[in-house]
Amino acid sequence: MGSPPVKGFGQGDPALARWAEQTFAPEDAVLAEIRERSARAGLPTIAVGRMDGLHLEVITRAVCAKKAVEIGTLGGYSGVCLARGIGPDGFLHTIEIDPGHAEVAAVSFRRAGVTGQVRIHVGRAQEKLIAIEREGPFDLVFIDADKQGYPAYLTWAEEHLRVGGIVLADNAFAFGHIHETAPGADAQAVAPLREFADRLARGGRFRATMIPTAEGLAMGVKVR
Ligand SMILES: C[S@@+](CC[C@H](N)C(=O)[O-])C[C@H]1O[C@@H](n2cnc3c(N)ncnc32)[C@H](O)[C@@H]1O
């Protein structure tokens, strides 16, 4: 099944999603340009949805996050939302394994006017996270990369977030299959995402919830 190219908001009536988008106007011209240019550049259409991007900005603002980490940059769509949330006195480290994606993201950050607040680390998250550890503790970690990596990324967040810091993770519904046996390619995502959710919910390090977006946005506050 995978991610739909156009992501709605919530699991219910699509008319409610349309109302929310009309009312809250989550995607301005800068974000729309990133989505279009990323598609033209041949990037997969797997950026967060419009309302997801707004959630990221608003949550980042709400917790006054200033030091943030994103795992999975793609073309910079969610990175711009996070950078807007942390503001000009904040800093975002964003990690991307694919140099072509990182090039598109660099243009996105420049056009959004947030270049001074963002550093793109090109390489495997597992290695790049180690390289930024000394700059912690961080206020917010957003996980949106390879699903097999989610349990390890959660472990990193447990160790490098401050108490009161936030972990967010997209695709926490495992493309609609978190509760069942998944067909095809989605099957490989289910076990690590279940492990991630079980530890986030019951591991004792976070007080956590699921924001019921189309993809499932897991959110936890580090409590110890
Ligand atoms: C779902 S996309 C990220 C979307 C982005 N957060 C947004 O909403 O605009 C996942 C990205 O993670 C990258 N990725 C996959 N495995 C990775 C890894 N091990 N380390 C770093 N990046 C990885 C992919 O190349 C892809 O660009």
Structure description:
By secondary structure, the chain is an alpha/beta fold. It has eight helices and seven strands; from the N terminus they run αααβαβαβαβαβαββ. It has helices at 14-24, 29-40, 50-62, 77-86, 99-111, 125-132, 150-160, 187-202, and strands at 67-71, 91-96, 118-122, 138-143, 161-169, 206-211, 217-222. It has a seven-stranded mixed beta sheet, sandwiched between helices. The radius of gyration is 16 Å and the shape is globular. The termini are far apart. The chain binds S-adenosylmethionine.
Please render the helix and strand layout as text.
Elements (H helix, E strand, L loop, with lengths): L13 H11 L4 H12 L9 H13 L4 E5 L5 H10 L4 E6 L2 H13 L6 E5 L2 H8 L5 E6 L6 H11 E9 L17 H16 L3 E6 L5 E6 L2
Parallel strand pairs: 1-2, 1-4, 2-3, 4-5
Antiparallel strand pairs: 5-7, 6-7
Helix pairs in contact: 2-5, 3-4
The structure holds S-adenosylmethionine.
